[in-house]
């Protein structure tokens, strides 16, 4: 950590999913690019032969999501942490742009009601209750300890950040435990019925769209006020290419990535009938593994009803699984294109933080009906009140985690620091 005496120096928070060793562009790692492309093509062909038409399309969307996330270093964990620690709201404003584009695209799709394949469309609209409050708060703490959110974990694994493999493993374990406990939280704990700004208020999707844009603008304005009052440091630039080469190598602008991610989420909704999600696949993977070890997961409340089919089917029949794999491969190819794929050092401190953070994220995501993607991004884009509540509670968890991170040797950006 290099301490700077002024309060306006850039913040380069390298506890993001991409470690500091990867902040300089190198020559493209061509063998890795070719290997990643071959694996992607094989999976695409396999899905085309064995699964429905939607699966290879969703795999392709996953590839683009991973590619975009890596190139922009687009984070949710770091965005929350920078705002809460030093008042920097640049990344949060990119979230607001992403959400504004998303609701603009989601509104007509949800109003129309069918996918490109003719099946029904439904957004993520979930109850607001104790389960959501506890889950989002726990997730907020977990993502700050684990070094990344759900999407951040996947693209960091694809980029080769070694400690994120630990986070990933325990994320799956936590999501599986959360699936086992979920009936208690949803059936025994109090909650309100799902509330949609579009269908529960009489505003309709057009009215909800206008209201959403007003809320996003208000949040963006608040971040500007906070920055001015705190004299927040700017985010440090990340090395990149110029011209058309920037598409393949180097950092993308956050606002460009925000637009791309919103479009890809809308394409996901239009293809499979649900927005982008991540953590339901983690519960599926963990439950299948537990079943192979003799655990009777089929009798868990979580795996009753509509979920039972997924437990008994191939994981490649699960659209979220297919997209998650695509994200990892897409991020891998993007990192290799920048010459950035490299396994990084694991210390005792970040190992312990990754174990605890992964468990908390997995458990919290299951209780809160999703993670930063399914609940926050997908929920708000679907005009659900629970998405906003998720964001507030995750921000509260982030605030607490700022005091916990130093216990594990993890940095916290300060107003007079350029963390590097």
UniProtKB/TrEMBL annotation:
It is a multi-pass membrane protein. InterPro entries: Sulf_transp_TsuA/YedE. The chain crosses the membrane at residues 32-49, 55-76, 97-118, 163-182, 202-226, 247-267, 321-341, 348-369, 375-404. It is found in: Cell inner membrane. The keyword Heme does not apply. One of its GO terms (cellular component) is plasma membrane. The keyword Membrane applies. Keywords: Cell inner membrane, Cell membrane, Membrane, Transmembrane, Transmembrane helix, Transport. Pfam families: Sulf_transp. Belongs to the TsuA/YedE (TC 9.B.102) family. This is Sulphur transport domain-containing protein. It comes from Psychrobacter luti. The lineage of its organism: Bacteria, Pseudomonadati, Pseudomonadota, Gammaproteobacteria, Moraxellales.
